[in-house]
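Aim 2 progress update. The chain analyzed this quarter is reproduced below.
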Amino acid sequence: MERINDVEILERMKEDWADMIYNRLVREAGRKAVDWNRYVGDFIYQCRRDGGVPMFKTKYAGKRFEIGSKPAVLGICYGGRGMAKDSQWFKNIPEHELELVERETGEWRELAIRHLPWEKAEELAMMNLSEPIIRKEVHAIMMGDRLLERMLGEKLTGHFPRD
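Predicted structure tokens:
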């Protein structure tokens, strides 16, 4: 009888775990994926407006995400305030954009230019990555914008404060 050492067992467990997670992700992708060209711009826009940073994943544990035999991409909104979708699966990704996502970091900027109307892409370009929208609202309150202060108070407390 052959004896398997602990290292081999651990390696098999890691591979099995990675396969299990990958298979679960791919099943979810098949159910929830939306068309890349139609929705990726909106995902980026909503994520950035929420103060998040859009990132795109094409693989897990070294395996490319696929729906059927076609590539899939998982869009993730990191660091937002929770108002935008945390993640979104995409299908029907053009090959040149799939290569861009795999090759670059910060690719959301180029994707925004390709998939958003010019005004929205320009708005995103003007946003400071480290400064979520809420900070601008708080700054306006500190500068004496009473109406904005009341609106923000309603947002935070659920009622509109009176003077």
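DSSP finds seven helices and eight strands in the chain. The longest helix spans residues 6-32. These observations will guide the mutagenesis experiments scheduled for the next reporting period.
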